[in-house]
Amino acid sequence: MKSIRLLPLLFVLPLLALLSGCDKKVNEEAEAEATAPMAKGIEQLADEVQNKGQMSGNVPIEPEQVVSLTLSVPTPAWSLTIDEVWVVGQEMWALATLHENTEGMVAQVISTAKASVTLKDVPKLPITYYVIGKTFDWEKAGPTVKFIKSKAEIEEGLNSGEQVYPKQ
After folding, report:
1. Is 60 helix (H, G, I), strand (E, B) or coil?
2. 129: which strand partners?
3. Domain hosting residue 39, numbered range
């Protein structure tokens, strides 16, 4: 009688061994499938590390970039200079100053003041221009140009950024 009770057990043991081998294969396939995206991500990270210096986060680094600004001014006596450029968050801030030469006589004709600087190895980001020194109130230069009274107005943002021109 005892041998009859053991008989089903003898059939079940090989079946369990066969099934556990299948489970192992299924587990290995599932593990490979689950880790494939991670392996791909590691490969991409390795490529990014090799290309460091050509990218900043997801922003390409430009070997040379010209930052320029042109404004309409009341007379040719006005000049414009770009004093500093900062990377603040995901944009560049260019600080410019308008100067009026008050010596001598000048023609009373609307003119343009231009300034530009060439930057090396900086991220390609949108630029916002902050202009100090405007005393006339008819110029509307567009959404990327903001007229401010002093650098102190944007000091908090500058403190969170990095100055890229002039290099310090």
Report:
1. strand
2. 94, 145
3. 1-50
